[in-house]
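Workshop exercise sheet. Pairs work together: one partner reads the sequence aloud, the other fills in the structure field after running the prediction. Swap roles for the next sheet.
Pair: D.N. / O.F.
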Amino acid sequence: MDKEQRYIRKRILKSEFQSIPFYLCRIFPIRRKKIVFCCIEGTTGYTCNPKYIAEELLRRNEGYELVWLVNDMSKQFPDGIKAVHNTLWNRAYHLSTAHFWIDNSRKQLEARKRRGQIYIQTWHAKLGFKPTCLDRGASFSRIAYLVSKHDSDMIDYWLSNSGWYDRTLRTGSLYEGKTLRTGSPRCDILVNDRMDIREKIRTTYHLAGDVKIMMYAPTFRGGSQGTDRAIAGNNGYPDFQRMTDALETRFGGLWYVFLRLHPQLVARGMDKSLTAAGARIIDVSRVDDMYEILAGCDAFMTDYSSAAFDAAVMGAPVLLYADDYNEYVKERGSLLWDLRKLPFPLAQDDDELEKQILEFDSGNYQRELEKLFDDTDMVEDGKAAMHVANKIEELTERKSAGNE
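Structure field:
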């Protein structure tokens, strides 16, 4: 038995033991209006797609019992949401007694869903660059397959924002069930009330009202490839001074950089503030909801984060800085898009980045965005959370009538 087989056997035995509380908690009834939320296995707080669904349900005030599983109990949640420490027994009790599960990542192997429960998977990306599951080929480990398959088999509805995304689910998520073409609830804020958010962000960070902001959100390296879930940071940051100089030359105004590292890095204490590197760099990595900040930004840059497609919904300039492109593809697998054929200018070093900014063609960029949205049949109309809440209410009433 090799190392991977031993690891898998250990994980399976552990999950079978940890599933016992789920079976024991079946002595308690399922509550028709109870909804349990979780984000990234509890490592983040009130954020991402689940947050905006919860916000809509709170706004409607229809008497739902909203529970949020979270690892860090210092995280802040609004009135109407009960934060619960994400321990095994708490998970087992609350998930076992909820009518709805709403999550943006995979449930753990020990999770067991009961008949009559509904699991809505929002995921934390729609259109994206990175291959996942079977699309990763040989780099998709056996344990990753088992976790993904276990989770996908429990899901009743998977949120989608496009025909393109629907077509990726079978190989990219091991999912062949029902989808809801609602759009991404976290993108609603990028469509609605942007001017109010723009003002709020500048007030919060003590910036002048006419300051312009580029959010830089590099993704993480590693994750589930190996058996030890090793995570590595990317230290190949661009020359921020050179970048802001180019932004100011091309677009005018005074520019700041908001640095946003991936939640997986932050959860492991691997985030690093770069505020010392320049007076106009602000680290926003530990703010729970990236989208409340992104909605107030004027431009966005990443390497391989799906947030590029979300930021494009605003029509703001989106750039890609991928200095490790060749190494990343070798480790991760071929990307789902040819980066040079997307509307987003691609740079692999500081010279290219400066050139792409200075030569940015706004008119051509907008035309290419419209073509991208048309080709993918994408829907992001700012009403995704409303559509999901409507579905929850429909399913709740169906259960009440005994038609589920």
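Discussion prompt: The longest strand covers residues 31-38. What would you look at next?
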